[in-house]
Amino acid sequence: MHFLGRSHRLAAVLFLGFASGLPLALTGQALQAWLAVDGVDIATIGFFGLIGAPYTFKFLWAPLMDRFEPPWLGRRRGWLALTQGGLALTLLIMSGLSPSRQPTLFAQWAVLLAFLSASQDIVVDAYRADALNDKAEHGLGASLHVFGYRLAMIVSGGIALIWADQWSSWPRVYALMGTIMGISAALSLFLLPPVRSESKPLASSPVREIAGFAAMLVGVFSGYYLARGLLSLLGFDPGSGNHWIQLLFVLAEIAAALPLAWWFARLARFETLNASLSSYFAQPGAASFLLLIVLYKLGDAFAGSLTTAFLIKGLAFSQAEVGIANKIIGIWLTIFGAIVGGALMLRLRLYRALLLFGILQLVSNFGFYLIAVLGKGAWGSVAVPPFDWVFVSLRESASLDFLLLTVIAVENITGGMGTVALVALLMALCNSRFTATHYALLSALAAVGRIYVSPVAGVLTESIGWQAFYLFSVVIALPGVVMTWRMKVPLITLSQNSSAGTAQDSRHG
Length: 509
Fold this sequence. Notes:
It is built from 23 helices and 4 strands. It is mainly alpha-helical. The strands form 2 sheets. Strands 1-4 form a two-stranded antiparallel ribbon. The chain has a two-stranded antiparallel sheet with strand order 2-3. The two termini are 24 Å apart.
């Protein structure tokens, strides 16, 4: 019976990893491909990258989803069913829209998709922590979650491009993904094993928590309109067709909204958020670690921000080629890189791993510069025979560009290694009392580069071209490497403290 219960829990973790990974590409690279084939310009595609902003702010509403329970549905399974049902409905609605003819409406629904996806991630992480109550299950559970997550990204980020190429229809692909999420919602509600969460982050008033969250939203909107108003008074037109002016508005709105949101949250005493943030910033070097987290994969984020658009619009690769090379093969290589990075970290200290993998990430960006200079077909091609895997098929043999495969291989392997080192840093920085909120905060900051470089990348590429852009991605990776080198002593100290804490836990266990 114990074995069956453990198998049920681990199967649930695998399934939820898949459900969590499926929407990510649909707000990122798959969406980029749809925009590219629908005729949307590169700068606008870059601005569409901002729809992923909810992933960087999920820690703000994580305490509310941890505290409140949907009526009759259960605390974890209820939120899972609601977010997954919302994702299904949103994807089905998006399948009936055109990004080129209805850009504003399409972007609004895409933002909602990202919000629901980020919210699902919060609950999936909490469910996994509650379900795997035996420490012996943690390692296997984490591996199953990552495997399910990456498998879903192959479906929505790789196979989806092949389907879109064969069907000549991205709306049909999004409708299918919506159906899959609808099935996931039903499975979450009726088949997932129930879990019992033992404690809440703080014993504060629920009314005050909601009021604090509402005040924080008031701060966000106040900052947004304040920035727009000030720039308008200075003579800038928010409706200007100049992409640099559009970018100025975006950056100013974000810069004003964040501090005002924090200030309003403090005024309204949003206790769960304030206590968890205060706990983190009480650590020595907290601000420096946050800066390192943002900078560490910034060059990687720049290089990858417009990869799909670059390959389809810039080099005229077909969607099927991009799906097979960049998404299916690329994601498996990322998994391989993560395994290699994990194995190396058994021998390397956190500092050495971060420094070595950061340098490798920087060097890998030269690959995109090389393919931008040499172009498609420079190194010949590799034949891919026809295949039929029931859910996806290739009717005729296709050729894959060998230079593209080489660049994708190096970039994904080094990126996977860098991700492992970064995740190890995030885990070491978490306070055990606020693990969920701290990890949501730190992982959100780790996603800042991936989300917010996109509009800058789009405007920059339109101005200087692909070759100069990828050289710039190498230069922008340097601060992360330098920051890692400068923080050698704090990183070594953090690693030693984390190891000592783990040893103490095992003795008490």
